[in-house]
Design brief:
There is one protein chain. By secondary structure, the chain is α+β, with helices and mostly antiparallel strands. The protein has a domain of 174 residues: Nuclear Transport Factor 2, Chain: A, CATH 3.10.450. Helix content is 29%, strand content 23%. Strand 1 and strand 2 form a beta hairpin. It is globular, with a radius of gyration of 21 Å. It starts with 34 loop residues before the first helix and ends in an 8-residue tail after the last helix.
Length: 273
């Protein structure tokens, strides 16, 4: 487990994913279709997708719920639909804060805290201290900061991921550590506590022509224990596991130059809703 146990990067590998010869979901391999039939199929799928998005975005009381009694534990389509609830409007150390005291607020807090804790800013001492003080509950922040300082200053670890001993990237290379949440769910909650699982993909590595640790993609689920402290949700503990990992497409990897430009030109998001 890596610093703060937030990621398990280990030694980077270059893995080229290919779709399996048979359907991974149990079906037989599909035969090729004619070009005209394929075009009709694609158009039909696009139309259905647009309709589905429009329906999901209606939200509110206009969206009927027809959940069977046996499906009460399954995620509902409204879980990630627009709710009409305004996102938080305040920040501390660049991190959204001031969440609602409900499950939606806890999920937004967990997603945003996951982004901050998985960012490249954690490798900068001052920014790491700001993030820890903002994200963690006061009673655990000091111990967590000490543990993270020890881990992120370990020269062996830094060398293994291609960084200099001060945590910076070598000349003409850009360090990438970015978390992109895919979804959240509440697994337990009370008036003062919440347990929220965040499923996300993580980009990690060094972009640049001379990089020996190219940017790779990994998938994780981190479950956060949150506590209502000083009118906001704060982290008290967490557990991480690999996956779920989707089947990778056989796409050609981008050049080091294209990856560097993407990292520099595309900013990250916050996820409060």
């Amino acid at each position: 487990m890596s610093p703060g146990d937030e990621h398990d990067y280990g030694e980077p590998t270059r893995t080229r994913m290919r779709l399996p010869e048979s359907d991974p979901y149990g079906g037989a391999q599909r035969p090729a279709r004619s070009s005209s039939r394929s075009l009709v199929t694609v158009v039909g799928v696009v139309v259905l997708l647009i309709a589905a998005i429009a329906f999901a975005n209606r939200g509110g009381e206009d969206s009927p719920s027809t959940t069977a009694s046996g499906d009460t534990d399954k995620p509902k389509s409204s879980t990630t639909a627009a709710t009409g609830t305004k996102p938080v409007g305040t920040k501390a150390s660049g991190i959204p804060t001031g969440y609602a005291r409900d499950q939606q607020g806890a999920q937004s807090a967990a997603a945003n805290y996951c982004v901050a804790l998985g960012s490249a800013e954690m490798f900068d001492t001052n920014r790491r201290h700001d993030i820890v003080a903002t994200v963690y509950a006061p009673e655990v922040a000091a111990a967590r900061q000490s543990a993270l300082d020890t881990a992120y200053s370990d020269e062996t670890f830094l060398g293994n991921i291609g960084l200099d001993k001060d945590g910076t990237a070598p000349d003409r290379q850009s360090f990438v550590s970015r978390v992109v949440p895919v979804g959240t769910r509440t697994t337990a909650s009370t008036a003062d506590t919440a347990t929220v699982a965040v499923w996300y993909t993580s980009l990690f590595g060094l972009s640049g022509e001379a990089s020996t640790n190219p940017v790779t993609e990994s998938w994780y689920t981190t479950t956060y224990q949150l506590k209502w402290v000083n009118n906001d949700w704060k982290v008290t503990d967490f557990q991480q596991k690999d996956g779920p990992v989707p089947v990778g497409r056989d796409q050609k990897a981008s050049t080091a130059d294209d990856m560097t430009k993407a990292v520099e030109e595309y900013g990250g998001f916050t996820y409060a809703r």
